[in-house]
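Throughout this chapter, every protein is written as a compact record of paired, labelled lines. The reader may check this reading against the record printed directly beneath this paragraph:
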Amino acid sequence: MANEIINLQRTEIEEVEEGFQMGKVGSSTMPQKRNPMICENIYANVHLVKNNASLGLEAMVQEHERDMSFWQTEWRYLSEMCLVFSAAIKMMSQVMDQMIVHEDNIKRNLNMTHGLIVSERVMLDLGRYIGRQNANEVIYEDAQKAFNDQFDFLDVLLADDRVTKDVDEATLREMLDPARYVGSCVQMVDDVIKKWRK
């Protein structure tokens, strides 16, 4: 989760970010920066925990009766892992409570390819009329044309008789709306929230 927020907070994506308030320092040299410092700390802590897991695996091998050559290591790495991981969980909880979501940037990023992001849906729906393989070939050609010539995907589809023979413009517009192509995501999120609340 922390790594995902680090990536989504990058300037060129900027879909979510850690909570911000005046006075929070993001960089010692660039005042405009709002770096995900807490998530970077969480990520570092988790790497420490993962690294210590190898000690745990080695300590599982015992010579005859369990002697102190291995359990001595447990005195250090187990307590350290618990402390570091509990700190990471506490910080992650804080990040999730204060996270800022930039919905306009999410929409901008979804529309960056001018409809190509949902070409799969167009191909699958068109497949009901002309067959899956034929639809794959048609939409592949149209998608590559839209990408190479920097056309809006809808315009390319509307100019293709192989598509408009079976699908009208209103249906194409609906197909190209990313918000209408989320599959089971809503149910999956609801299931996770329900499980978490229990």
